[in-house]
Amino acid sequence: MSKIVTFGEIMLRLSPEGCDRFVQSEAFRIIPGGGEANVAVSLANYGHNSVFVSKLPAHEIGQIAVNTLRKYGVNTEHITRGGERIGLYYAETGASMRPSKVIYDRAHSAIAEAEPEDFDFDAIMEGADWFHWSGITPAISDKAAELTRLACEAAKRHGVTVSVDLNFRKKLWTSEKAISVMKPLMKYVDVCIGNEEDAQLCLGFKPDADVEAGNTDAAGYEGIFKQMREEFGFKYVVSTLRESFSATHNGWKALIYDGKEFYQSKRYDIDPIIDRVGGGDSFSGGLIHGMLKWPGEQGKALEFAVAASALKHTINGDMNLESEAEVMALVGGSANGRVQR
């Protein structure tokens, strides 16, 4: 069992039933989730000591998030309690040609206003094998960006592998601000995960591929992967490739580059999508597990990650609730959906 630390914000997602629109809804489901928290749940499902670090209010609404993480086996001992509020976001599930929609209500959340003294990152990173964060966390606030830097520094002091999911969110910051904050943090990163848009908006790189037109051939990414690795010293550069035919029908595959060879995963046709929120997080969780379980076998790790993420698209909520055995069954070709008796 590996110790894996993730750091970020867990929010409460408020969603209408099914594919209802916000304006016709009289009640919302409460679904806790957030980038790094979703990764933590995936890794706990795969049997790791998965540690989620954040700050949440001490009241009962904050406890909803803590209880959810505990229910799925995540270590919550380093969640600091305090602050005024937990971040919220509203998510409306699209269908066919109507896209899903997200509205944030997360300003001044506990983690956005947290201070360095709220966390002993050296103690947190003690004995850890891996540290994961995403571009959403430094986008929350300048204070959260500083905490991200401190966490990365502590991880490096303790010899911990660091991964980032670039995860650009235009509702949280501009590309100019993202590049100014994210580029200096890349020196701590060993494994960089992102799609073509993230690489452009967070780091200023653009692949030679027209993804909107469905041109997601690996060749268009080889140049940008090499440039990113040369500039930032990443050990691995990874990109997911999503073909969006409609809100409920996507193509899904990924690429990885270790400085020697490119590997492209098999492609999954996901139709119908039940819930794509957290799809990228389930990919990150699967990749981390795969890299720890099969060190040096980047292809095997990537196939596990893509399969895990494909399965997540069939699950309601932010979090991937699949076991390693269920993911491995799909990797092995069992995709017919027959009842398991």
Could you give a quick summary of the protein structure above?
This protein is α/β, with parallel strands linked by helices and 341 residues long. Helices cover 35% and strands 22% of the residues.
Commentary on this structure:
The protein has 341 residues and is of the alpha/beta class. 35% of the residues lie in helices and 22% in strands. The chain is built from 11 helices and 14 strands. It has helices at residues 35-45, 60-71, 121-125, 136-140, 142-157, 175-185, 196-203, 219-232, 279-293, 298-312, 324-331; strands spanning 3-7, 11-15, 29-33, 49-56, 79-81, 88-92, 101-105, 130-134, 161-165, 191-193, 236-246, 249-257, 262-264, 268-270. The strands form 2 sheets. Strands 1, 4, 5, 8, 9, 10, 11, 12, 13 and 14 form a 10-stranded mixed sheet that branches. Strands 3-2-6-7 form a 4-stranded mixed sheet. Helix 6 links the parallel strand 9 and strand 10. The radius of gyration is 19 Å and the shape is globular.
